[in-house]
Amino acid sequence: MTAEVTEPTPAPERPSPVGRAIETVRAGGTVVITVLAFVCAIVVGAVLIAVADEATRAAAGYFFAYPWDTFAAAWHAVSSAYLALFQGSVLDFGSFTGESNVPILGPISDTLFNAAPLILGGLSVGVAFRAGLFNIGGQGQLIAGAICAGWVGFTWHMPVLLHLLVAMIAGLVGGAIWGGIAGWLKAQTGAHEVISTIMLNYIALYLLFYLLSVPGFQAEGSNQAISIPIDATARFPRLFGSGLSVNGSLVVALLAALACWWLLTRSTLGFRLRAVGANQFAARTAGMNVGGSYVTVMLIAGALSGLAGAAQALGGNNVAITGDVDANIGFDAITVALLGRASPGGTVWAGILFGALRAGSVRMQAETGVPTEIVQVIQSVIVLFIAAPALIRAIFRLRESRGGGVTQLAKGWNG
To answer: Pick from 389, 352, 355: which is nearest to 375 by CA?
Structure first.
C-alpha cells in the first residue's frame, strides 16, 4: 500500500500596489468617500460656472450648428476660474516670473489666515458632536468671545504679551458662558440645544449691534457701527512679517486641536463625554452624570468658539470690531466639522481646505467675475455628498457598506 502524496497548496499571490489601491477605493472607506465627495462638488461647481458664463450661454444659442464653441467657452470659463482659485489660495505662478507683486507664500498665508478661526469653530462643533449634541450656536458664541476679547483689547492697557493673553482668556470665557447657557438649559429643562443655541445666536448678534451704537464701545466721534480700535498690544502678531497675513491665531488653533485630541482620546472626561454621546441611557445606568456632561461639553465648545471670536477681533483684517465680525464662520464651522468627521485631525485639514476656498474665491471673483457664492455651493455640495455616502457609492459603483449614511456618519462622530 503506497501513501498518497498531496501537493502543497500554493500561497495566494499578493496583489500589486496598484491592485491594493484599486481595492481600497472600491471598498469605499471614509477617506475615499470624502475625496470623491470633493471631486463631485468640483464637478457641480464647474457646471454652475459654465452656466453662469456669458460667453458659454451665447455659444449655446447655436450649439447644434457649432457645438465645439460651447465646449471651448465652458472649458475656458471653468479652467480660468479654478486656476484663479488655486493661485489665490496655494501658489501664484506670477510670483516666480515677476508678473505679480504677490509674495510667493502670500496665497498659502491667506489660506492659513482664513483657516484658523474655521478650525477653532469646527473643533467647537465636533466636541459637541462627540457628546451627542448639535451645537448650532457657534455664531453667538463667537460673537460673545469677540465682544469680550475686543472690550479687553481697547479698554485695558497692558504690556504686549500679557495684554494679548488676557484678551484671549476674556474671549474664551465669554464664549464658554454663552455655550454653557445652552448646556445648562439642556441639563435642567431638557430644552433642545438646536433651538436654544439658535436663539442665543440672535441675542448675541443684536447685543453686538446695540453695543456698536453706545458710547464706551462705539468709536468716539463716529456714527458708524464700529468699535473703539483695539490696542496694538492686544493683537496677534504676524508669524512671518507684515507682508503675510497669517498670525498667531493659527498657533492657537493648532494647539486647541491637539488639546481636543488629548481630551477625547486620552482623558477620563473625554471618555465620559463620548460615552454619553454614544448612549446617554447606558451612561446614566453606569452612574455617569449626563446633565453635568452636557453642561461641561457646551462650556468647552463655547470656549473654542470664543477663541475663534478672539481670533477675529484680535487678528482679523480690521483693527476694530464691526457688525460682521462673525463672517459666517459660526455656520461654516458646522460644515468643517462634518467634513472632518468631528475628529481634531480631520477638522484641521477641513479647516485648511475651507480656508483655501475662502482665500481663493476672492481672487477668482476679481479675475474672472465668478461670484464667490459658487464656493459656498461647492462647500454645501461636499457636505451633502458626505452625509449621503450611498449616493457616492452609487455614482462610482463602490461596494455597499453596512448601514445607511446616517449610521456611518454617527460612527464617524462617536469614533
So the answer is: 355
Residue-wise pLDDT tens for the chain (415 aa)?
A: 455 555 566 655 666 666 665 666 656 577 788 888 888 999 999 999 999 899 999 999 998 989 999 999 999 999 999 999 999 998 887 777 767 777 888 899 999 999 999 999 999 999 999 999 999 999 999 999 999 999 999 999 899 899 999 999 999 999 999 999 999 999 999 999 999 999 999 999 999 999 999 998 999 887 888 999 999 999 999 998 878 889 999 999 999 999 999 999 999 999 999 999 999 999 999 999 999 999 999 999 999 999 999 999 998 778 899 999 998 999 899 989 988 888 999 999 999 999 999 999 988 988 888 888 888 888 888 888 887 888 888 888 887 655 444 444 444 444 4
The fold of the 106-359 domain, in CATH, is: ABC transporter involved in vitamin B12 uptake, BtuC (1.10.3470)
Domain locations in the chain as residue ranges:
29-86+371-415, 106-359
